[in-house]
Amino acid sequence: CSLQAGLAVLLKAERLFHSSYHSQAVHIRPVCRGSHWFAQQPCGGFTLCNTADASCLAVSWELRQTLTVVFDFFSSGQGKKDWSLFKMFSRTLTDTCPLASQSKVYVDISPKNKEKELLEVSPPPTSVHEAIVQGDRKTYAVYDLLSPSLFNTSRSLNVQLKWKRPQDSSEMPIPTLHAQRYVGGYGLQTGEICTLIYNTHPYRAFPVILLETVPWYLRLYVHTLTIITKGKENKPS
């Protein structure tokens, strides 16, 4: 459908490239279509399935494309946390792609504190989905573009999130897993790049995959890599 229908309608280049952060990725992995023991068993880790494996008879390749974009309207909008699809992308959703077997929009509406929920989304979602993410219970408003009732009243879907009353300027809650990075020193002798990874969960540990984007002006030497956890040197897997 290209940019004519579906979620890709929102991918307006000038809006994406002027955001605070954007990242495009293509993920390819082999998936076993049939085996002697397990049907539809995906190949895990770095082990590639092939037809020579005793347990795998045929292999398919799964292609997954992702786009991650971060907009910062809290700073540019006089401290307001309200947002909408039109405000972010200058476009709204008008129709689903006929070739798509699934096309959904998820909005995180999880309450951030014990008080009554202070935010509301419009129009009303087609369903609500709950999941456990990093030990926390999350609630998502789901907009199914394949639902006939979604475009009944209007041929345009502009998902909006508004706060029921003005919010103070307090900082947003810190996520369970978050990271900070900074560059120190200068030159090849004292220059360094440091990444701090925090886990604020009271008792649970999480596996972490770290992907670094190195600035063009830095030359890194892998043999100088040091990893310290709670004051002690740590060896990654």
From TrEMBL:
The protein's name: PIGT transamidase
Gene Ontology terms, cellular component aspect? GPI-anchor transamidase complex
Q: Which Pfam families match?
A: Gpi16
InterPro entries tied to this protein = PIG-T
Q: Which GO terms describe its biological process?
A: attachment of GPI anchor to protein
